[in-house]
Amino acid sequence: MSSPVFVGVPRRMLQVSIDGHDVQVMEGMTILDACGRLGIDTPTLCNLETLTPVNVCRVCVVEVEGSRVLVPACSRKVEPGMKIQTDSERVRHSRRLVLELLGSSVDMSLCAPEVHGWMSRYGAQPQRFGPGAATVAQPVKVDNDLYVRDYSRCILCYKCVEACGVDAQNTFAIGVAGRGFEAHISTEFTVGLPESACVYCGNCIGVCPTGALMFKSEHDMRQADTWDENKQHVTETVCPYCGVGCMLELHVQDNSIVKVTSPLDHSVTSGHLCVKGRFGFQFVQRRGSG
């Protein structure tokens, strides 16, 4: 006897208005998804297609008719007849203020180029809060040979926590400790990484948008002023350690691998790797004489 086949309920097409344009989008999509389909560049710092939305950066907020407050585009699902404004003065003011507050409290110099583009687009001026509100001075945490933690760059986007948890690794080695201004990313009981549950997969590094988490190889080269992305090229290859078939992106400078990433859209990895795939490239550099 054959097993029963369960067919899901087909999704409807919903009529919504985005920036004055009537469009049809699929039921279940978020506002961010819908905006992306229309080519609208919606800034976001805590969202990633491979992670669960956590609604914490608030840079993606949009104005929805009938809503008292601005809503996060990354998690709000579209509804029939919804009227959305993505570039109203209210939206621009909110995004500008969020970017200014972030830029006045943490070092965002290593953020992706698009972040600096958003700062310019919305006229964000973090310096207006005064020089005393600059980056919180704290030492870089270097307690292992694989990666470092520079929390003076951390914007509490929660991406690393999600990647360490159910979205990827299921290790739960890190979480958010403290509340309010005291909130920070921490291991359990604030122990060092070697004493924590960390398995050094480095998936937290792969999703960090600000450089707060970084390969130690990159950190050391930046300290020595030898890191130069203009001299780097990326070569794709399959990880040699097992038969899963993870895709690696080898970042090479001066004929040496300086770090390893994986494509977010790869069907096997979704950007995630294990400790061997991400950090086990040193053997390639051991070039003997014979």
Low-pLDDT stretches: none
Radius of gyration: 21 Å
Query: What amount of the residues lies in strands?
Result: 15-25%
Level-2 CATH architecture of the largest domain? Single Sheet
How much helicity do the residues have?
A: 10-25%
Structural class by SSE content: alpha+beta
Identify the overall geometry: globular
Average predicted confidence as pLDDT:
89
Characterize this entry briefly.
The chain has 290 residues and is of the alpha+beta class. Helix content is 21%, strand content 19%.
What does this structure look like?
With about 290 residues, the chain is an alpha+beta fold. The chain folds into two domains: about 10-135, Ubiquitin-like (UB roll) (Roll), CATH 3.10.20; about 145-285, N-terminal domain of TfIIb (Single Sheet), CATH 2.20.25.90. The protein is built from eight helices and twelve strands. It has helices at about 30-35, 90-105, 115-120, 160-165, 205, 215-225, 275-280, 280-285; strands at about 15-20, 20-25, 60-65, 70, 85, 145-150, 175, 185, 215, 230-240, 245-255, 255-260. The longest helix is centred in the middle third of the chain and has 17 residues, at about 90-105. The N and C termini lie far apart (about 65 Å). The mean pLDDT is about 90.
Question: Secondary structure elements and their pairing?
Answer:
Layout: E1 13-18, E2 21-26, H1 31-37, E3 61-64, E4 71-72, E5 83-85, H2 89-105, H3 113-121, E6 147-149, H4 159-164, E7 174-177, E8 184-187, H5 203-207, E9 213-215, H6 216-223, E10 232-238, E11 247-253, E12 256-261, H7 275-279, H8 282-285
